[in-house]
Specification:
8% helix; 4-stranded antiparallel β-sheet; single chain; 4-stranded mixed β-sheet; 158 residues; 2 helices; mainly beta
């Protein structure tokens, strides 16, 4: 029996049709896609879930610069290791006024840089366009600057 699955993505819901020998089954199922984003994105180019890119500091440096470009509903995900007690900051440079970023700690809570990192782990930085910027479909190049406050190096006695 020839059977295939067709997925239609509309916002945060999806309609799934099972087709037998080219005929649609009239029993379509609709479900919330919030928990299925990763699986659906592999099937549909309408969902813009993207792979995370892990970044780190170059040896002996206290900052890293990451360049990227997003368009429409695309977003860029970066993760960086932060130790408990670290003081760090993120800056975003772009000529696009509709771009922004958010940061989540390893437990998924929003991190706002008002205090030192309360937990060690990978922090997730998401760069995306607001609704107006996404509708414009104009590519937005950006530079993400991640900087850590570090103790000054002590000279070695010799």
């Amino acid at each position: 029996m020839d059977m295939h699955l067709r997925l239609i993505v509309l916002s945060t819901t999806a309609r799934v049709c099972v087709c037998f020998a080219g005929r649609e089954d009239k029993n379509e199922k609709t479900f919330n896609t919030d928990s299925y984003d990763a699986r659906i994105s592999a099937i549909s180019n309408e969902v813009n879930a993207q792979a995370k890119r892990r970044v780190g500091l170059p040896e002996g440096a206290n900052a890293v610069e990451v360049k990227g470009k997003i368009t429409g509903k695309q977003y860029a995900l970066y993760e960086i290791w932060v130790d408990k007690g670290d003081t760090w900051e993120v800056g975003l440079d772009s000529s696009n006024a509709y771009i922004g970023y958010s940061v989540k700690d390893p437990s998924g809570n929003k991190y706002d840089f008002l205090e030192e990192a309360q937990v060690s782990g990978y922090y997730l930085i998401r760069v995306d366009l607001n609704r107006t910027g996404a509708k414009s479909k104009i590519p937005a190049a950006f530079i993400l600057n991640i900087k850590f406050e570090m103790e000054p190096a002590k000279p070695h006695g010799g």
